[in-house]
Amino acid sequence: MSTSPAPQSPRNRLFRRPSLLENIRVTEVLRAETTGGMLLIVGALIAIIWANTPWSDVYESLRDYRVGPEALHLDLSLGTWAADGLLAIFFFVVGLELKREFVAGDLRDPRRAALPVAAAVGGMALPAVVYVAWNIAFDGELAGWAIPTATDIAFAVAILAVISTHLPAGLRTFLLTLAVVDDLLAITIIALFYTDDLQLPYLALALVPLAVFTFLVQKRIRSGWLLIPLALLTWGLVHESGVHATVAGVLLGFAVPVLRRDGGDGPGLAEHLEHVVRPLSAGFAVPVFAFFAAGVTVGGLDGLADALADPVALGVVLGLVVGKTVGIAGSTWLLATFTRADLDEELSWVDVIGMAMLAGIGFTVSLLIGELAFGHGEQADDVKVGVLVGSLVATVLASVVLRARNRAYRRIREVEERDADDDGVPDIYQQDRAED
Questions:
Q1: pLDDT on residue 318
Q2: At what angle do helices 246-255 and 87-104 cross, to 10 degrees?
Q3: How far is CA 32 from CA 157, 233, 268, 379, 434, in A?
């Protein structure tokens, strides 16, 4: 006589609902990223339109206008200030998020961390493989292999808001955690593979203000007049060392403690600084970078066709659209197969594919890596076209798939948010607690 297998524990399911506190935090973060993503899209559109008008030379002159003290080797163009300076603010927030995830978030639990880590690794490795394979086949440049490996969380959640998709809590948490791990891998790639002339004395000197900054924040000192000068000095010395200055932002973020000194459950210094700095990052730093980075003169349909004829540009498109989708969905399937875990009972593999397509929006960090790989010039413009086209195609495909599932998502969200007794805690979490 055969017996049916025992029902699987919810703890062994992929994309399961996060804890109430984690769900609240993810909702707040994604709400801020949605606003920033909208501003990012506006900044990019203004740049693209301006660069394709008769006044494109004015845009280029503004982007290339140099400002800063020459004596400190900081006589940089506005475009470089945006890439090296403003994005350091963005990566500081990334560092805070990473620290929190590893100390108090999903990444501290190996079972919960396995899915976003596997998806992020697959979602970065396969786009790079696709890019390299395409450019080897068509004699293209291999220097841009890392361009299609990034995911732009702000752009992605802005698209979700535009298409009014009500993602369930499990998918929202997965998307944010995937983007956090993705950012960690991206900054590691930038530090290891896009540092041309390393100056070790400056890098060693950078450790001094970084150590003082770390000491102060570990003592829970949050005075801006102390921390900001130390952060700026760390940034300046890392910039002078030849390592991309955004790495300084991540290191400073890593230095901030997550837990409260008294061991309480309230927000720690990392969460406090994240609330302070995130609006500056999402509302100003990233949109301004997008404005200076996205402006490319296409030259009409003929110019677009010429740009996409470059193996580098088409390799970026294929990496973002095909590599990301297959890499993330394939890694998730392999994880489910080898761990014998099922998707959460309310979700299907169509949802995984839709999220993987959405992760193909690689705008901000992809443009940054493109600049590091190819500088400024005709091929750099082809790279921008590739990033823009790839992100646009990924947006359209993800929108079609996720919108088709929106009725199911809305039903799940209604259950997750129902609070019949008006006690401020959704009923589903009280049910989960009772079952535990």
A1: 96
A2: 30
A3: 10, 28, 19, 34, 33
**Rounded to whole angstroms, how far apart are CA atoms 117 and 344?**
18
Helix (H) or strand (E) holding 66: strand 66-67
Q: Tell how far CA 60 is from the center of its chain.
A: 27
* Distance, CA of 436 to CA of 434 (rounded, Å): 5
Amino acid found at 273: L
Q: If you count DSSP H runs as helices and E runs as strands, how many of each does the chain have, helices first?
A: 20, 2
pLDDT digits (tens, 9 = 90+) for 259-313: 877 666 667 888 889 889 998 998 899 999 999 998 888 877 777 888 888 999 9
**Virtual CA dihedral for 298, 296, 318, 350, nearest 10 degrees?**
-100
What does the pLDDT look like over 78-119, one tens digit per residue? 999 998 999 999 999 988 988 888 887 767 777 777 888 889
Q: Tell me how many degrees the CA angle 367-369-374 measures, rounded to the nearest 5.
A: 95
List all residues 6 or more positions away from 180 whose beta carbon is below 8 Å from its beta carbon.
94, 97, 98, 101, 107, 116
To the nearest 5 percent, what fractions of the chain are helix, strand and coil? 75, 0, 25
> Which of 392, 306, 315, 307 lies closest to 147, judged by CA?
315
Instruction: Give the count of beta carbons closer than 10 Å to the beta carbon of residue 103.
Output: 14
Q: What is the token pair recorded at 200?
A: 């070790």
SS3 309: coil
Burial class from Cβ neighbours inside 10 Å (0-12, 13-18, 19+) for residue 115 reads: buried
How far CA 368 is from CA of 38, 80, 117, in Å, comes to: 19, 10, 23
The CA–CA distances, whole Å, from 143 to 62, 80, 128, 199, 364 equal 28, 20, 11, 22, 18
Q: How many residues does the chain have?
A: 436
In eight-state DSSP terms, residue 77 is E
Instruction: List the structure tokens of 125.
Output: 């490795």
DSSP code for 343:
B
Rounded Cα distance, 123 and 321, in Å: 11
Name every residue whose Cβ is closer than 8 Å to that of residue 213 and which is 6 or more positions away in sequence: 227, 230, 231, 234, 252, 255
Give the model confidence (pLDDT) of 124-160 as tens digits. Answer: 999 999 999 999 999 989 999 999 998 888 888 888 8
